[in-house]
Structure to design on (320 residues):
C-alpha cells in the first residue's frame, strides 16, 4: 500500500501569502493530503456524487456571483449541499469581498476559509505545482546529486567510490551541489523526478580523511542549490577487467526510480580517472541526446551500420 503524505495548512498559508478569514482550529493541525484542487460549481446545484472532500476548494467571481443571484433559501441550501461534505478548505480569489452569509456558513460547518489577492487561474496553477511537490511519492537513497550544465546528475555507487570527492571537484569547476550521502527523490509527475537533501544534512559533505565540511560556507551560496530534477544517473563501480563495458553508448540504459525511467550509465573507476570531467561530459552528452543528437548513432551511419538498432536495458542502481 502506498504511503500518504501531508502538508499543513499553515505551510500553504505561508507559501502563498493567504489571508485567514476563519479557522476552526490551529492551521498547523489541519493537514492537506490531496494535490487535486476543485471549484465547487455543480456541487452548489446539489449534485454531490464523486465529490472529494480531501481537495481544497477554490472560489472566484463566477461562484460568488452564482450564490449572490440566489434567494436566501436557495443559497442556504446550496451552501449546505457543499459544506456539509466537509471540504478540506475554501479559498476566495481575486481579493473579492466575502459575504457574511458565506463566512457564517463556513463557521457553522467548521470549514477553514482563506483569501488571496491573486487571480483564480494563476493561483490554481501555483497551488497545484506546490502540492505536487509537497505531496509527491518519495524515497531516500544513498548517493550524491549535483547540477552540471543545467542537468541534474545523480551519482550512485558503493561507499568510498569517490562520489563526494567528485562532487567537490565539480563545485570547484562552477557546478552546484544539491545533496550528499542521502538524496530525497520525489516523483512530481509521471515523467519528472525532483531531488533534494534532507534538511538536517543540507549542504554538508563527508570527505574521508578530512571529515564533514559545509559546502555553502566554504565555496559560497553559488555552490549549492536546494533542489533539482534528476535528469540522469551515473553509477560508479570498481574497474573489473573481466567485464565488458559499453564503449559506444548506442544502447539506452536506464534506471527505474519510482516507476520513472531515467537515463543511466555505468562508469568504472580506477586510479587516475578524472571523475569530474567524466561527469561533465556525460551531462553534456545527455543534454545532446535530449535535443535529438546521438553521437553513437551518427558514427554508425557514417560507417554504414545504420541498421544496428539500440536496445533498452534496465540497470539496478541500488541493492534491493
Amino acid at each position: 500500500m502506498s504511503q500518504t503524505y501531508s502538508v499543513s495548512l499553515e505551510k500553504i498559508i505561508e507559501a502563498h501569502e493567504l489571508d485567514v478569514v476563519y479557522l476552526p482550529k490551529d492551521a498547523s493541525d489541519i493537514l492537506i493530503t490531496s494535490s487535486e484542487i476543485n471549484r465547487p460549481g455543480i456541487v452548489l446545484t446539489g449534485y454531490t456524487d464523486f465529490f472529494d472532500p480531501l481537495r481544497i476548494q477554490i472560489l472566484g467571481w463566477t461562484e460568488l456571483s452564482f450564490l449572490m443571484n440566489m434567494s436566501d433559501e436557495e443559497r442556504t441550501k446550496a451552501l449546505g449541499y457543499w459544506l456539509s461534505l466537509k471540504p478540506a478548505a475554501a479559498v476566495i480569489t481575486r481579493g473579492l469581498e466575502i459575504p457574511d452569509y458565506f463566512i457564517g456558513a463556513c463557521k457553522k460547518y467548521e470549514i477553514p476559509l482563506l483569501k488571496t489577492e491573486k487571480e483564480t487561474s494563476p493561483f490554481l496553477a501555483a497551488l497545484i505545482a506546490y502540492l505536487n511537490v509537497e505531496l509527491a511519492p518519495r524515497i531516500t537513497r544513498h548517493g550524491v546529486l549535483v547540477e552540471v550544465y543545467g542537468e541534474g546528475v545523480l551519482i550512485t555507487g558503493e561507499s568510498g567510490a569517490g562520489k563526494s570527492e567528485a562532487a567537490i571537484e565539480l563545485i570547484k569547476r562552477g557546478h552546484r551541489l544539491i545533496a550528499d550521502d542521502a538524496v530525497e527523490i520525489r516523483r512530481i509527475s509521471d515523467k519528472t523526478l525532483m531531488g533534494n537533501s534532507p534538511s538536517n544534512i543540507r549542504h554538508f559533505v563527508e570527505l574521508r580523511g578530512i571529515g564533514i565540511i559545509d559546502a555553502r560556507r566554504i565555496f559560497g551560496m553559488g555552490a549549492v542549490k536546494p533542489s533539482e530534477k534528476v535528469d540522469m544517473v551515473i553509477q560508479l563501480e570498481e574497474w573489473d577487467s573481466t567485464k565488458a563495458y559499453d564503449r559506444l553508448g548506442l544502447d539506452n540504459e536506464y534506471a527505474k526510480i519510482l516507476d520513472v525511467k531515467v537515463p543511466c550509465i555505468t562508469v568504472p573507476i580506477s586510479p587516475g580517472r578524472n571523475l569530474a570531467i567524466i561527469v561533465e561530459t556525460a551531462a553534456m552528452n545527455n543534454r545532446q541526446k535530449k535535443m535529438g543528437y546521438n553521437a553513437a548513432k551518427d558514427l554508425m551511419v557514417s560507417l554504414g551500420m545504420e541498421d544496428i538498432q539500440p536496445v533498452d536495458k534496465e540497470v539496478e542502481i541500488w541493492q534491493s
Remarks:
- The longest helix spans residues 275-290.
- The chain has a mean pLDDT of 92.
- Residues 178 and 259 are 22 Å apart (CA to CA).
- The radius of gyration is 26 Å.
